[in-house]
Amino acid sequence: MADITRRGLLRGGAAVLGCSAAAFPLTTTVTMASAPWDERLVVLILRGAMDGLDVVRPVGDPHFAPARAGLFDAAAPGLPLDGFFTLHPSLKPLHPLWGKGELGVVHAVSTPYRDKRSHFDGQDLLEAGTGMDVSRLAARDGWLNRMLQTVGGLEGQTAFAIGRDEMKVLRGKAPVMNWSPDVALDITPQTRLLLEHVYHEDPLFRDTALEAIELAELAEPDTSTERGAALNARLQEGRSSSMNDLAAFAADRLYHDTRIAAFSVPGWDHHRGQAKVMPQRLELLAEVIETLRIGLGDAWSKTTVLAMTEFGRTLRENGTKGTDHGTGGAMLMAGGAIRGGRVLGRWPGLSESELYDRRDLMPTGDVRAYAAWAMRGLFGLERGVLERSVFPGLDMGSDPGLLL
Fold first, then answer.
1. Nearest CA-CA partner of 92 in 338, 247, 286
2. Which PANTHER family match (predicted)?
3. Which of 19, 59, 77, 374 could form a disulfide with 23 if both were Cys (CB 3.0 to 4.6 A apart)?
4. Rounded-to-10 torsion of CA 97, 64, 52, 271
5. Distance between CA 223 and CA 241 in Å, rounded?
6. Mean pLDDT lowest among 8-17, 117-126, 131-140, 183-192
C-alpha cells in the first residue's frame, strides 16, 4: 500500500474525500461569531452601488420625476411609506414589515469616500470603516472585527463571514468563522478517522480539515423544530438560490450560538436597463431578508439587519436607461430590534444647486454613524470606543434612535 502524505491528500482531496476546495474555511466568505450578549447583527454588503433613489423614491421632491422620466413604469407605482417617499414595488414582500416597524431606511448617507467613484476603493472604505485620512494599506482589518476585538469572552462561532467573496468587514485579529454554500463534503466515518490520523501531528491541517467537516454538517437546518421546518420548507419552495442558501445558513446559526453574520449581495451596478435589472435584485434582497426572518424564529425580535452599499447613483438617468456612479445613497434596516417605519436622515433636496457636484444626491449623514449607533444599542459599547477604535475619527453625532 502506498504511503499517504499530507501533501498528497491535499492535492487529491477532492477525489479521496469527495469535497471541493471551498469546503476549507480559508477559501470561504461567510463569517459568524458568538458573544456574551443575546442580540444579533447581520451586515449585508450590497456590492455595485445600489441606487437608493430608486429603492426609496423621493416622489415628494419636484425634481425627482423629471430627472428619471424613462426609468419608471407609471403602471407600477411605488409602495407608500410616509407621504414623501415610496418603496420600489419589487420590495412588496417587505412592505408589511414597514407597517410593523421592522423595516426602516436611512437616506442621503455615504462613507467619507468622494469623487473617484471606484467600486473597489468604495467597498474597501465601507468595510474598513475609516475616513479618507487613513490609507487602505493601513486599514488591514474591518470595522466589525475591530468591534469584536473590544469585547472579551468571544467563542469560535460568535461571528461568521458567509459566501465566496472576501468579507473585509470581518477581517482582523478577532476570531471569525467562514462558510460557503460550495461546502460539499461526502465523508464516511472511516474517512474522517483517516483524516484525523493523517493530520494528527499537524495542528494547522488537522484543525482546518475538521472545521471544514463541522461547517458542512451545520449547513442543513434542523427540521425537528417548527422553526427549522419552516426554514427548510422555504428553501424547498423554489427559493434555493445560492444567496438564499447563505441567508438560511446565517439564520440557523444566528438562532443558535452565532451573534454576528456578514455576507454580500452583489449585482447593483445599473449602468443600463435599470428598470429591468433592479426588480430582479430587489426581489432577491427581499427573499434574503424574509429567509432571515423565518429562520431566526423568535430571535428575530432581537435582530438588526443593516444593508449597506459603497455609494449611490447619479440623479439623472443616462443614455442607456441606467444611472452612473454617484455619492449619496440609502441604507436599509430590518429586524424586530429596530424602530422602523421611518425614513431617517436629513433630506438635502434635488435641485441642481442642492446636488453634490451638480449630479449626485448630497450626503447629509455618515453611514458609519448609523452602524455605530446600532452597535451601541445592541451591544452597549461606549461611544468613545466606537469613535476611536471601531470607526477611527468618527463623530457619531446625536442619537437617531435606531433601536427599540
1. 286
2. BLL7424 PROTEIN, DUF1501 DOMAIN-CONTAINING PROTEIN
3. 19
4. 130
5. 19
6. 8-17
Q: Count CB atoms within 10 A of the CB of residue 77.
A: 12
Confidence of residue 5 (pLDDT cuts 50, 70, 90): very low
Q: Please classify residue 106 by burial: count the beta carbons closer than 10 Å to its beta carbon, then call 0-12 exposed, 13-18 middle and 19+ buried.
A: buried
Strand partners of residue 115: none
- Identify how many contiguous H helices and E strands the chain contains and give both numbers: 14, 13
CA 23 vs CA 111, 178, 210, 364, 394: distances in Å: 34, 10, 10, 43, 38
Residue 57 and residue 4: Cα distance in Å, rounded? Answer: 62
The SS3 call for residue 221 is: coil
Q: Among all chains, which residue has been given the C-alpha cell 491535499? A: 10
- Tell me the pLDDT tens digit for each residue of 196-243: 566 566 665 555 555 555 555 555 667 788 998 999 888 887 555 778
pLDDT digits (tens, 9 = 90+) for 112-163: 999 999 999 999 999 999 987 644 445 579 999 999 999 876 766 788 888 8
Residue at grid coordinates 476611536 = 388
pLDDT tens per residue across span 360-401: 999 999 999 999 999 999 999 999 999 999 999 999 999 999
Residue ranges per structural domain of the chain? 19-183+219-390
Residue 184 has pLDDT above 70, yes or no: no
* Phi, psi for residue 3 in degrees, rounded to 5: -70, 140
- Dihedral of alpha carbons 369, 375, 378, 379, sign: negative
Q: Please state, in angstroms and as integers, the Cα–Cα distance from residue 268 to each residue in 194, 291, 311, following that order.
A: 45, 20, 11
How many CA atoms lie within 13 Å of 116's alpha carbon, on the beta-carbon side? 11
**By the 8 A CB rule, do 335 and 345 touch?**
no
Assign 3-state DSSP to the chain and report helix, strand, coil percentages, each to 5: 40, 15, 45
SS3 call for 108 = strand
Strands 177-179 and 155-162: parallel
Measured in degrees and rounded to the nearest 5, phi and psi for residue 111 equal -80, 180
Q: Which residues contact 324 (CB under 8 A, 6 or more apart)?
A: 271, 313, 314, 318
User: Residue 355's Cα: distance from chain center in Å?
Assistant: 28
